[in-house]
Amino acid sequence: MSDHDELMQELEAIDAIYPDLLTIHTADSKIISIKVPQHENMIVQISFPANYPSANPPQVIEVRSNDTGSNDGGNGGNFCDFKYLQHLFQEVMDSCYTQNGSNSICLFDFLSELDGILYIEQEEHAGTDEPVQVPTDPFENWFASSPITDRGSTFMGFATRVNSEQEAFDRLEQLKTDSKIRKGNHAMCAWRIKQAADGSQKNDIIFQDSDDDGETAAGSRMLHLITIMDCWNVMVVVVRWFNGTHLGPDRFKHINCAAREAVVKAGF
RWD domain: which residues (predicted)? Predict the structure, then answer.
């Protein structure tokens, strides 16, 4: 089946699953707009390369609000950085395309992931109005980022070198013994580990995974970050202390920044 035929079948399936959300702008169906399911106030414009899905992922060319006269994404001013959203959505698209493997369609997975990106934090996650107390002393084997605070939420990243999944789990439990860490609402993490099975790189055993810890889609974004940084034998954790103020997708900007700083400080 040709790339064009696969694209047409994919768009027909998307239109059947999400009726009235898809708009095709060109005769060859290479440029579309789609309202994000469950978040129909957000519209994503997408361009499909001529060699999609065989060789290249779709490109996110615009993210905008569907609300007349509004530039806040329809979320009461929680976020309005559409350039950042375009960058974030492209990361999600690239990740879905890569995870599906070569010659695989990815639009449905992309739209499913966006629900996690755009969801609004629930009030029951709210903490107290007391100032957040972040760890100040370095943990053994861990390297910490500077805390990032935005509208009452505080994010702090931690990174460590690990050589096995069991070591990663043990180090995570070690981190959680700190009383200030335990007061955090989320401790999202990701890890990538490469072990030589017989002393040669050809037969490397690879372990990589992530945990959102209640912050939907955060772990997979952190895993994508350390993947594009080409880091191995690393575990990165970002702790969020949350006082109930909604940040929308801006939270992923802070999670990635905290994670990146911790990984760099750890020497990866």
Answer: 9-121
Residue 242 CB burial class (10 angstroms; 0-12, 13-18, ≥19) = buried
CA atoms within 13 A on the CB side of 235: 25
Token digits of residue 239: 């702790």
Domain chopping of the chain, boundaries: 3-118, 125-265
Decide if pLDDT at 69 tops 50. Answer: no
The fold of 125-265 is Ribosomal Protein S5; domain 2 (3.30.230)
pLDDT (mean) for 110-121: 82
Residue 170 has pLDDT above 70, yes or no: yes
**Closest to 21 measured CA to CA, from 4, 7, 42, 6:** 42
Inter-axis angle of helices 3-17 and 107-118, nearest 10: 40
Phi-psi region of 252 (alpha: psi -120 to 50; beta: other; left: phi over 0): alpha
**Cα atoms found within 13 Å of the Cα of residue 197, Cβ hemisphere only:** 6
Residue type, 137: D
Which two three-digit tokens encode residue 202? 């050809």
Tokens of 180: 């200030």
pLDDT above 70 (res 70): no
pLDDT at 199 over 70: no
Calpha distance 58→46 (Å, rounded):
7
The secondary element (H helix, E strand) that includes residue 158 is strand 153-161
| Other Cβ atoms within 10 Å of 218 Cβ, number | 26
Note the helical H segments in 71-164. Answer: 82-100, 107-118
pTM of the model: 0.73
Residue carrying the six token digits 């992923």:
252
Kindly report which listed range (26-30, 110-114, 131-135, 226-230) carries the lowest average pLDDT score: 131-135
